Hints:
Mean pLDDT: 76
Oligomer: single chain
Distance between the termini: 50 Å
Amino acid sequence: NSRKWPTLSDHRSQETVGKEFPWLVAEPTSATMSSDENPDWLGELLTEVQLEQFLPKIRDELHVTRLSHFDYVKGEDLEKIGMGKPGQRRLMEAIKRKKAAQRKSWLGKVLLRKEPECPSKPSFTAKRP
Length: 129
């Protein structure tokens, strides 16, 4: 008697599936998504530093789709797409802050992760003959 896993062809309602398997129907929010999972992270970052007009060029010409891709972007690359030195400094500072926040978030998740409850170890007493 194996448990049936819901599929797209299942006729269960989303509510029923959601109660049994919440991860299948829950839509992640930008607050719970990492920058690599959130498709709008780059636009949000550029808007934060008032450089949103560079979104298409950074994404399409420099092929930046993840925060880690900025490790390979140089000042001359940003100059080629028309970004001036002050904009480059603002962008790089924002990237640095975002990476630090990501590391801090990751570290917090690792350090604060609750270990699964284990039954206490049985105590054995050696019997002497």
